[in-house]
Amino acid sequence: MQISDVNQSIANRLHSAAIHLLRRLRKQDEAMGLSQARASALSVVVFGGPVTIGDLAHAEHVSAPTMTRLVIGMERDGLVRRERDARDGRIVWLKPTTKGTRILHEGRRRRVAALAEQLATLTERDRQTLASASQILERLLRAAPRPATGERPVSTTDVRSRRATRR
Question: What's the pTM value of the predicted model, to 2 decimals?
Answer without folding.
Answer: 0.72
